UniProtKB/TrEMBL annotation:
Record GO terms (molecular function): oxidoreductase activity
Protein name, UniProt field: Uncharacterized protein
Keyword Oxidoreductase listed: yes
Membership in a protein family: Belongs to the short-chain dehydrogenases/reductases (SDR) family.
Organism of origin: Acrobeloides nanus
Length: 283
């Protein structure tokens, strides 16, 4: 039985503290991007609480290292690995097919992976890398696994973000086409890419420098709160920080722009339908 009174959480709360009274035995959780940082600690914390954790990463060797390290901490052996390269829609399709072929439920899908300064300017499918990896790859994965999520209800979908969303440079007063062009840019030329990369890097440094930053155990706390806390089970579509509702900090003029949401959804669906029509089945 859970105490109905929600504990007080803050920026120093750790993932395992959030999960202190939570038993995840029998729950299957798929997480992208777990070979380092917050994703690594998210996978570890959920596995230590009994979940069947499926880690989806491009690098299988690093995935195996993480699995083996977690196994040293617990006698519970329920971590599986799926290779997933979000830079390639074919890889996303293959990964989802592999997941579905296992017959596993999908109680929680955590979209954690992301790039700030991608090594390549364009994905294998020709999209600007930040958009292609951070959004379109995850969009396609969710699209392909949505029925399994619904079959596994009660289930949860967790999208990891940050307050950098408020620094997009998109003016709320801009036209819908202008907003979409910002969100879905063409792959930049080399000189533009360098400038854009350094500007992005400056924003990231400013973000992570205030206040002196959380460790990974603290950084993963909000993710596991949204994924597994009983106090979030009846909440949906909210923005969280420090394991608390942070809607007041959300850049609502853009994030809650339903016309922009619908347009981005339609364009994303258009892109994946185009991919599927081309019958790309090789990696």
């Amino acid at each position: 039985m859970y105490n109905n009174k929600k504990p007080k959480y803050c920026g120093s709360t750790t993932a395992l503290k959030v999960l202190k009274d939570v038993d995840l035995t029998g729950k299957t959780i798929l997480i992208t991007g777990t070979t380092a940082g917050i994703g690594r600690e998210t996978a570890r914390s959920l596995a230590l609480k009994g979940a069947h954790v499926v880690i989806a990463n491009r690098n299988v060797n690093l995935s195996e290292e993480l699995r083996d390290e977690i196994y040293k901490e617990t006698s519970y052996r329920k971590i599986d690995i799926i290779q997933l390269d979000l830079n390639s829609l074919a890889s996303v399709k293959h990964a989802s097919e592999e997941y579905l072929s296992k017959g596993w439920p999908l109680n929680v899908l955590i979209l954690n992976a992301g790039v700030n300064k991608p090594p390549n300017r364009a994905t294998k499918d020709g999209y600007e890398s930040t958009f292609g990896v951070n959004h379109l790859g995850h969009f396609y994965l969710t699209y392909l696994l949505m029925n399994k999520l619904r079959e596994s209800a009660p289930s949860r979908l967790v999208v990891v973000s940050s307050d950098l969303h408020s620094r997009s440079g998109i003016k709320p007063s801009a036209s819908l086409d202008e907003k979409l062009n910002k969100l879905i840019p063409n792959p930049p030329e080399e000189d533009i890419a360098l400038g854009r990369g350094s500007q992005t890097f400056t924003s990231i440094v400013a973000f992570v420098s205030k206040p002196f930053t959380k460790n990974f155990e603290q950084g993963a706390a909000t993710t596991v709160y949204c994924a597994a806390s009983p106090f979030a089970e009846n909440e949906s579509g909210r923005y969280y920080a420090d394991c608390n509702d942070a809607e007041k900090d959300l850049h609502k003029a853009l994030a809650r722009d339903e016309s922009l949401q619908d347009a981005l959804w339609s364009k994303s669906l258009e892109f994946i339908k185009k991919f599927e029509r081309n019958n790309v089945t090789h990696l």
